[in-house]
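Students often ask why inverse folding is considered easier than folding. One informal answer: many sequences map to the same fold, so there is more than one right answer. In these notes we will look at a single instance of the problem. The structure comes first.
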């Protein structure tokens, strides 16, 4: 009796005797489920290509995005950037982590924070003013300044 190929789409391995899948795909979704996933991806791509972006989102996600977009403040985003920067600094202090990676990551996060602070000031109607002051304040809060 000749063996048969794994039922997993695209797999060329032999199925385990008495089964439909190879050892790597045992318990994997059936070919029909994989095909349904392909159909979903194709439908998503068609909606995306057609510019029908609202159809890509669930009603709940649409509501959440609308609510978040209505808020004219970047306070949470700035706070998140500060948390990321603090974690990077802590990583350097704790592990002496990869200096090259950190030398790229820290300036990017600081730059993003400064841009967010500048945008927040513009939204609030303030002039960008002295960004050095804003950056100094961020660094002092992180324990890296004066």
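Output (designed amino acids):
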């Amino acid at each position: 009796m000749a063996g048969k190929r794994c039922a997993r789409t695209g797999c060329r391995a032999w199925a385990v005797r008495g089964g439909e899948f190879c050892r790597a795909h045992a318990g994997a979704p059936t070919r029909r489920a994989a095909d349904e996933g392909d159909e979903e991806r194709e439908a998503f791509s068609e909606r995306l290509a057609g510019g029908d972006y609202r159809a890509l989102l669930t009603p709940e996600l649409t509501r959440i995005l609308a609510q978040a977009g209505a808020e004219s403040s970047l306070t949470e985003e700035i706070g998140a950037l500060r948390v990321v920067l603090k974690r990077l600094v802590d990583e350097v202090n704790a592990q002496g982590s990869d200096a090259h990676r950190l030398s790229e990551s820290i300036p990017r996060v600081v730059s993003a924070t400064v841009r967010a602070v500048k945008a927040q000031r513009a939204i609030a109607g303030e002039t960008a003013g002295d960004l050095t002051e804003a950056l100094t304040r961020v660094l002092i809060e992180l324990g890296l300044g004066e």
